[in-house]
């Protein structure tokens, strides 16, 4: 007996099968001569609340849809219509519906799409035609001219239907019914927005008689002989032409020629053509051989080091509908930031993206559209990947990925999917893939025993575990022990961070078995929002959501790089430049390329300003080689601090950046840091209400600084609080520590300042205080000692912890307020932010900015924007020098306001610019999903002393 009332006409929605009616999957390409008719643009659209609310009469010819709304195809309907068509939902791994596979809720938003089209006048009368859907979420039924041609699932996979027999010259009616939820949704539980719709192109393709059905380009490279071997298998016989190699060979036959190989560093593609009786197909052939050899991933005979990112498709207005320009922008940004690999987390991307990877050079892990993560909530019971009924759907997804994408040289790994537990279905997929394409490797992270894979892959393993693995001391199954290791996800780029990148890279470079990794992730999936700027989970009133966990990218939603990307660029730079005492050591860290593509320049910088510059002649070092090069005699200069800065630049234009683009750099100190000195010659004088000392006046009762010269200053005092970062808010898996909770429980965000004494001495004004939170015995003594030589004012802060401090401090320094400040100049680390473990990209120099531009716009406001290793800063009419160097932030709101804000639009400029001058910061880590800061980056509560020298700038 069944209680389900849904009529059988809609059974396909909950059917575990991949669908019916679609043609077998095949390679995706743009034909040179067969006609194509894009069916993009405005479609009629009707939204229903349930799958079965409407019958299929809308698919009939002559149906009057004039009263319907419209949506743009490709597109997600929930991102159109200003909310009239429903709203996006964000969950990380929770299914936003009851877990009762394969059933989905009765409330199942269903979008009927209708498009009427004529064939172009020159559409050939002979041959067949297919209609191709490149991506529809999550399940669609299709009718052409009233005939039901099939239904399918597999949102980010292409589906084609033969329609030639149904077409007519005019008035063709293409009707597509799309259901947000289907059995397929159980296989698509990726951490991203749920966004129904026809989100990739729909195209009508003419298929001339004698045109190719499917073809497979096999192009290998023998690094010992320098020969490439090409064989193109085609379902329809034809010839393969590669003019540059004088190749004209029958399909199915192998031919060998001397070639330049393809690699991500030198992506040499040969233009060719597959010519069959009915069609010419352009080929872009990259010769390369991928192998698992000696326990290593080798391409063209050499182990590669992956410096990768995980890329979801994202556009802040269009969701997963990406145009070519946006895809190209992603690839160019990656190349310009020294990234050499991309994992298409967690589904095959738009096929054009893979063309770009071939063209510009990126190693690709192409991942299948499969994730069943939500089953973890029930201990993986009933996981579809371990239930034979679902295996056909899994195999269909594997085949649709491999067949569509198999001709891309950039793809070195097929990935079975993400976070789907383990099971027979995955094994079946791996077996099928290995059989179909033995020339590539298989990846899957979810099985640490590596039953089905050619690489041991993990996510977010901390540094010490990665080192164990590098040393091959991690044990594991026999099969795993012989495999290379990658982190398919690491360094969670949520908010401020990720910290600890350089420490990972050091390990990857040290141990052969560690072949690199992929940062999680490329872009913040913020949705452009009229009131909030960018929306994240919860902003659309979702019942279940995971907040801003969807904003964890190296670039902001508008694709401006975040500091994390700048740091990554530096950490993975392909040339290391280091040295001391006038000798620079240059090391080539490419896997294949020599250094002939780079030009080297040096500059000699005094107090951050270049006084002399020149070129450095660096031999065309082979990968792994180093050279020690003598820098010229330094110019004479007095007193001030000096550095050498050496840069490696592109020697000529490349496809991805112009000549002069900086690929790598390094700095060598040429003298030591010059510390400010102020002779304490002035005497503090107690007046009626004020104490004066040099240029400064203080409150006579509290000793609080009031002004320096004509600049009013809101009292500088000890500050230990920072607006907690997403990483401070995250839980370290290993230890369960959440810094935000520890710090807030201790009360570090509500410290009270008790005044103990104001002492007017011979040559100093000394103010003694104790800074501590209510309800706790721990505290910090803070002694402020002010001295002056009559024009400069020096503050020395001495901090002493009292009680048992078991936690690190968020920050340690002073905070002061200035009535106005706009332009900011400094000598120190820049131009961007840096924290103890996100520090590599910070270059010592002379920098200019503004208070507004110093802010890093993390989507959820949090501590940001600190400039590190600062010798001096000028802002708001003051010059502030540090002894030792310090970090500073300057903002138009308080830390408390920053801490309370949930979106950038909550931050409103006040009347005061709040400046933090920090002696120390706790590291950033990447604990929002992974390890916290390494111990060497902890800011311990320990006795500390640091000084600042203030002077008034001439107006
Ligand atoms: C991983 C997962 C990603 C993402 C990430 C956290 O477990 O594979 O899809 O959820 O964590 O942002």
Automatic annotation (TrEMBL):
Entry keywords, A to Z: Glycosidase, Hydrolase
The keyword Cytoplasm is annotated on this UniProt entry: no
Record-listed E.C. numbers: 3.2.1.23
Pfam families, sorted: Bgal_small_N, Glyco_hydro_2_C, Glyco_hydro_2_N, LacZ_4
Limits of the Beta galactosidase small chain/ domain: 692-951
Catalytic activity: Hydrolysis of terminal non-reducing beta-D-galactose residues in beta-D-galactosides
UniProt xrefs under InterPro entries: B-gal_small/dom_5, Bact_Beta-galactosidase, Beta-gal/glucu_dom_sf, Gal_mutarotase_sf_dom, Galactose-bd-like_sf, GH, GH-type_carb-bd, Glyco_hydro_2
Family, as annotated: Belongs to the glycosyl hydrolase 2 family.
Stated name of the protein: Beta-galactosidase
Native organism: Streptomyces pseudovenezuelae
